[in-house]
Amino acid sequence: MKVLGICCGRKNGNTEILMKEAFKAIEAKCGAECNFVRLQEAEIRSCVGCESCMINHLKGNWDFRCVHKNGSDHFYFIEQLMREADAIIVSAPAYNLLPPGILIRFMNKLHASGNYRDVVHKEHKIGATFTLGGTDWTNYTLTAANMLTMELVGAYDAVVDKCHFDFVPGVGAIVLEEDMLARIRKLGENVADALMEKANGQTPAYRGEAGLCPDCHSSFLEKRADGWYCPQCLTKATLTWANGELEVSFTPEEQAKNRWSPAGQEVHDNNIRKGHMKAAGGKDIIAAKRKEYAEYKDAVALPELVKE
Ligand SMILES: Cc1cc2nc3c(=O)[nH]c(=O)nc-3n(C[C@H](O)[C@H](O)[C@H](O)COP(=O)(O)O)c2cc1C
Fold first, then answer.
1. From the CB of residue 41, how many other CB atoms can be counted at a distance below 10 Å?
2. Closest by alpha carbon to 35, among 7, 72, 69, 67?
3. How far apart are CA 29 and CA 197, in angstroms?
4. 301 C-alpha to ligand 1 centroid (Å)
């Protein structure tokens, strides 16, 4: 069994130390081989939005990857490690309340992974996520990092644990926080237990703290024109006020339509197709208007850079 950790903090910093603490617990419990990648040192070229991967994949050409070819980008190397892994742990420090840009950049490249997502939708991996911040201004960090984990393992319910730690600012300061180290060892044990259950043909359950959403366990709600939603699952919530408390619940009918379900995926795919068909129908208008906008103003010219 193999476990892959994805880290995007400082070299030998807090997230890497926590990852290694989780690895020790996994190795001790089930003997899985654990390795991690340090995204901060990887060349992950920004998705340029050309959509060549999406267009090719829609035509069934899964061999097409990206205009950034293998050898010019570490994405492919990491993707191979992901394919070989039975479990993936995503970790991130808070940068401006979010995970660092490199993690988002990595997530943006997932369309370039050929059939990876198709493969993991059919055969889920085990997932776990942890994040931390220097203060408690960390609001989106865990939720956004966990979004990537769900993508990498193929399903929201293949994530077996997630946790977050606040007030860990200095490099390596996590070693002073015995409670946090204990919690991350627990995360490692939970991953190991889930791996062993899966090897025995069982479906591992979520072991982390409960959130508002019974599916992804996020504690976020989003107000949309027609009501309140779990923004991660796009499941519509029912809010009721009882005994001075706001109660949040989700009907099985709404849960069945969530973003991750076949029904939810079909709605999404149809929306993409509808959008492209509308654009194709108006392509002459679009071309004329784009020309007008291009001629109106260009972006500020950037200066030449000195290579460091
Ligand atoms: C650019 C940058 C932005 C940061 N933004 C936040 C933030 O919004 N909230 C927070 O609590 N900590 C923030 N931090 C602090 C880091 O989350 C904290 O130092 C963390 O321990 C770094 O983890 P590492 O040692 O694994 O790199 C920021 C740090 C940097 C470098």
1. 11
2. 7
3. 13
4. 32
Q: What is the pLDDT of residues 57-95, one digit of tens each?
A: 888 888 888 999 888 899 999 999 999 999 999 999 999
- Which class is 2-209 in CATH? alpha beta
pLDDT at 60: 86
Burial 67-86 (b: 16+ CB within 10 A, else e): ebeeeebbbbebbebbeebb
What is the biggest distance separating any 2 CA atoms in the chain, rounded to whole angstroms? 64
Pairing of strands 33-38, 2-7: parallel
**Minimal-distance CA residue to ligand 1 atom 15:** 134
Per the CB < 8 A criterion, the answer to whether 184 and 18 are in contact is yes
Residue to probe by mutation, ligand 1, list 96, 102, 104, most atoms within 8 Å of CB:
96
Banded model confidence at residue 184, pLDDT cuts 50, 70, 90:
very high
Domain boundaries, the chain: 2-209, 211-260, 262-296
Indicate whether residue 175 lines ligand 1 (CB < 6 A): no
| pTM for this model (two decimals) | 0.95
